[in-house]
Amino acid sequence: MQATELHRQICAAITRRSLVMFEYGDLIRVVEPHRFGVNSAGRPMLSGWLRAGYSRSDPAGGWRNYLLDEIAAFQVLDAPFAGSRPGYAAHDARMREVFCELTPSAVDMAAEGPYIVREPMPSSSTATPADANAREERNTTERPSDTNDTAPDRP
């Protein structure tokens, strides 16, 4: 496979969030590609999350970098992955040039907060006598303490 065709396939897989499979170091790897570019030594490199079960040294998988000139039998799989993995940094100083990289989706981005969700209270017009009795019971049993004891509880 020509280098330019391999580059195109890698960027397409990153854009579509598709798993890739290839041979690397005499082993088959299944990887979630996150970034593709040129490393600080000037070599084309793929950075991605190795799926669990595809490494003898670390069967749990994790972050790996793969030099393109050591990749063989590259395939884009028809299997998507959810998005960026923990520890993914949008900018990596180890890559001096980036051809393509995973962009975080709205799902990946942390939501600003904190958000407080409150359950609606039944209105007095729809409340039953049982609801009124339960509220009265809570009001009489859940009174705050008048003491200001900040010492920890001791047995």
Topology:
Blueprint: H1 3-16, E1 18-24, E2 27-39, E3 44-50, E4 62-67, E5 71-80, E6 95-101, H2 129-141
Antiparallel strand pairs: 1-2, 1-5, 2-3, 2-6, 3-4
Which blocks of ≥5 consecutive residues have pLDDT under 50? Answer: 106-118, 134-155
What proportion of the residues form beta strands (DSSP E)? 25-35%
- What is the CATH first-level class name of the domain at 3-101? Mainly Beta
Shape: globular
Just name the CATH architecture of the domain at 3-101.
Roll
What's the main sheet like?
A: 6 strands, antiparallel
Query: How many DSSP H or I helices?
Result: 2
Cα end-to-end separation: 73 Å
Helical amount among residues, as a percent range? Answer: 10-25%
The whole-number mean of residue pLDDT values reads 75
Structural class: alpha+beta
User: In the CATH scheme, what's the topology name of the domain at 3-101?
Assistant: SH3 type barrels
Order of helices and strands: HEEEEEEH
Radius of gyration: 27 Å
Please report the total strand number as a whole number.
6
